[in-house]
């Protein structure tokens, strides 16, 4: 897969003007919209949930990349699928064992959605090796999930080549946390093909330039 998928995280958007904020990145060349769902248990923060995804779906036909940072993902997959998520990414750490992770993957697939599995900074890439042929995307967190605007953790990027070595051609390797021009270049050169960026995109005066620059970092 050669194309680089840029997925702006609306966590850094102005929620009072969410429709405008989405249209802004769409017009600026964003490929997907990244929606960070936090439950206050899996991560020490609470963000947005199903009703917001539903409202976004009514206003845009963009691909909705939904990052579930929640406990018990199984319980909520169908709701997010119905609300209009296109890709549902859950955390391997939110599952007790392989059986449970496989159940979540099967459930997402049975809803007709693309499947993603994510690892936090302290989780080894091997934790997702059993699922690499079953999922569409692996999300490598390069900050502790929970907040936007944190510093990129360089060690985490070294998981990218480990995943790439063990993955098939079509697996999307996405990176999330602390992405800017410099860290994007590092991740893309290590083999990532999708970048999530929140503060770097939404704090910028020239969103089209920022997105275009990120796409041309390889
Ligand atoms: C963090 C979220 C990220 C976050 C990234 O828990 O998963 O998607 O919005 O924000 P930046 O790009 O500002 O690090
Ligand atoms: Zn995210």
Overall outline: globular
**Secondary structural class:** alpha/beta
Arithmetic mean of pLDDT: 97
Give the low-confidence spans.
none
Q: Report the β-strand fraction as a percent range.
A: 15-25%
Distance between the termini: 13 Å
- What's the number of helices? 9
Tell me the quaternary state: single chain
Order of helices and strands: EHEHEHEHEEHHEHEHH
Bound molecules: D-xylitol-5-phosphate, zinc ion
Largest sheet: 8 strands, parallel
Tell me the helix content.
25-40%
Question: What do you see in this structure?
Answer:
The chain has helices at residues 18-27, 50-59, 77-83, 98-110, 154-157, 159-166, 181-190, 199-202, 207-215, and strands spanning 5-8, 32-38, 63-69, 87-91, 114-119, 137-141, 172-176, 194-197. The protein is α/β, with parallel strands linked by helices. Helix 2 (50-59) links the parallel strand 2 and strand 3 (63-69). The longest helix has 13 residues, at 98-110. The mean pLDDT is 97. The structure holds D-xylitol-5-phosphate and zinc ion. Zinc ion is lined by residues 9, 34, 36, 67, 176, 196. D-xylitol-5-phosphate binds next to strand 2, strand 8 and helix 8.
